[in-house]
Amino acid sequence: MLIIDAHQDIAYNALEWGRDIRRSVYETRQREERYTGDPESHPTKGAGGIAMSGLPELRRAGFAVVCATIFCEPCSSQHIPACGKQLTQSYRTAEEAYQVGQAQFAYYHELAREPGISLILNQADLQRHLQAWEASSPEDPQRPFGIIPLMEGADPIRTPEETEQWHAQGLRIIGLAWQGTRYSGGTRAPGPLPQLGRDLLRVMERVGIILDMSHSAEESFWQALENYSGPIMASHSNCRIYTPTDRHLSDEMIRALIERDAVIGMVPGNFFLNGEWRRNHRFPVMLEQVVRHIDHICQLSGDALHVGLGSDIDGGFGRDETPEELDTALDFVKIADALRQNGYTEADILNIMGGNWQRFLSHALPAS
């Protein structure tokens, strides 16, 4: 089954935590301090958790394409990992953000030199890649694996005009916000879209970069819709009706995205699925909660054409913070099983697991 995942922090995990995506997830777990069963003791607590992904598992599971992020954390977020590590993928100034972002982009270009891994930069690339993937075997250690570069939080772009340089390097999707950035209000940082953000949107539309609405503060969200006519998506956002924080999408926001033919990536993180789950208040969460969020979007749209996957695994959270049925990337096919058990047709399941992102990217990416 084709799986397209709209959000993984591959470069960040490699450069911040030394997690090499080329390794098996089991090797990564062995290399990291052994998990004792107490989440508080895990070395990457609050910064990725227990590893879930590695290329061997992603390939066998059917992950054909991943939108891989360029993500650097503002020092103002005051996020201090429990392990005490000094963060390197962080910034205080636009210049520092630029340097971190460029290093992550260089990582992706180097990764794409590996057998079977490629950067997907246009519609022709996507078509060729998926044809090769369809002809491949899940057991092929070099099964085609495609990466679409996505910037999460636009601060690495020093000026709006510099967007052309990033586009020439291969950047194809930009989310203006993470928390608040110079370009947009964001999660836990409410506010409008400043003039700098409007200027960035104009350049993005001119050069042909997709706008990712995840993390946008509500006021900035609506103003971005008014100021950008190109393709939009939400790489990793759930439904606010079930998780009532500004990180997630209200029904009005979901309807607006549907009207623009967007796709919304569901995140299987426990604290994104259930508003009562906390790292200091844990309880079992099941895949039924993922289905609940998916189904809500389908009910609002009247079909199953506007929702997909945006996992954020090993970036936003790890095994210790996902539904009980998920251990590694190999288990993502269980989402399809859960949808099947809830009456979804095979056609709808194929669309949710990857077909909707395939359709969206097939027209949203540049033609060539």
UniProtKB/TrEMBL annotation:
Gene3D superfamilies registered for this protein in UniProt: Metal-dependent hydrolases
Any one GO molecular-function label of the UniProt entry: metallodipeptidase activity
Recorded superkingdom: Bacteria
UniProt cross-references to InterPro entries, sorted A to Z: Metal_Hydrolase, Pept_M19
Gene Ontology terms describing biological process: proteolysis
A Pfam family that the UniProt record links to this protein: Peptidase_M19
Protein name (database record): Peptidase M19 renal dipeptidase
Organism: Ktedonobacter racemifer DSM 44963
